[in-house]
Amino acid sequence: MELDIIYEDKHVLCLIKPPGIPSQSDKTEDDDLMSAGINYLKNKGDNPYLGLIQRLDRPVGGVIVFAKNDFANKELSRQVQERHTKKEYFAVVCKKPSNEKGTLNDYIKKLKTINMSKVTTSDDKQGKLAKLEYEVLETAETTEYGTLCLVKINLLTGRHHQIRLQFSNAGTPIWGDNKYNKVFMKKKDFTMPALWSYKFGFKHPKTKKYTEFISLPKNYPFTVFDFLKSGNQ
Q1: What digits encode the pLDDT tens for the residues 138-176?
Q2: What is the CATH number of the domain that holds 127?
Q3: Can you tell me whether residue 103 is helix, strand or coil?
Q4: What is the pLDDT of residue 30?
Q5: Confidence of residue 229 (pLDDT cuts 50, 70, 90)
Q6: Total structural domains in the chain?
């Protein structure tokens, strides 16, 4: 697997993850990004160490960051746990949210047997608070799918399938989502959810300088929207 490298130094390796590729090895034993990264470091003669800082679901593409040593892994993992990192996504949702900007707060729990999550109540011991902020950037009318909206998401917690589930629960499911969008659950053809890791920001583990990396989606239905072509991101 050829890596799409955004940035690399002695402490971090920042890549663009292709949709459909696992972030790390799983029970499918399909090629995964972390293993490809380790092979890349071996071939360079570097220390073949990678620590996964933020895991992206298999269907999700975009910016992903790995730590290249134990020091960086501990420091960046601490920032993630203390919510000092910045995680922003682009998504295309079906139907227009009721508000141009807003916050989604839900309690969700993971259903391990079917690799899905569901919205629950605050008194459910298995439920965890899921919170995100969103902003509608552009709306487009399409013949086949009706109203589609490009939204920017600031992820404030990191729960299993959080973005996909929360937007579905709000009545604006993500385009292409075979798990949480009823329209696409009924389709025979498999599609990837239109969800993209657009930005990841953190304090560099060594220099302590705030650093952020950006990647823009280039696949349909993101290509419907002029905003992503305007350079205003």
Answers
A1: 999 999 999 999 999 999 998 999 999 999 999 999 999
A2: 3.30.2350.10
A3: strand
A4: 84
A5: confident
A6: 1
- Domain enclosing residue 109, as ranges: 5-229
Average pLDDT of the residues of the chain: 93
Q: How does residue 54 score in pLDDT terms, banded at 50, 70 and 90?
A: confident
d(CA 197, CA 89): 5
Q: What six digits make up the tokens of 24?
A: 């790390």
Opening angle at CA 64, ends 55 and 95, nearest 5 = 75
Residue 115 falls in which region: left (phi positive, over 0), alpha (psi -120 to 50) or beta: left
Residues whose CB falls within 8 Å of the CB of residue 131, separated by 6 or more in sequence, listed in order: 103, 104, 105, 156, 157
- Distance CA(44)–CA(52), nearest Å, equals 20
Instruction: Yes or no: say if 93 and 171 are a contact pair by the CB < 8 Å rule.
Output: no
77 and 51 in contact (C-beta within 8 Å)?
yes
d(CA 171, CA 181): 9
User: Residue type for 40, please?
Assistant: Y
Tokens in use for 211? 């650093």
The residues with which 13 forms a beta bridge, in sequence order, are 8, 66
Q: Are 208 and 196 in contact (CB under 8 A)?
A: no
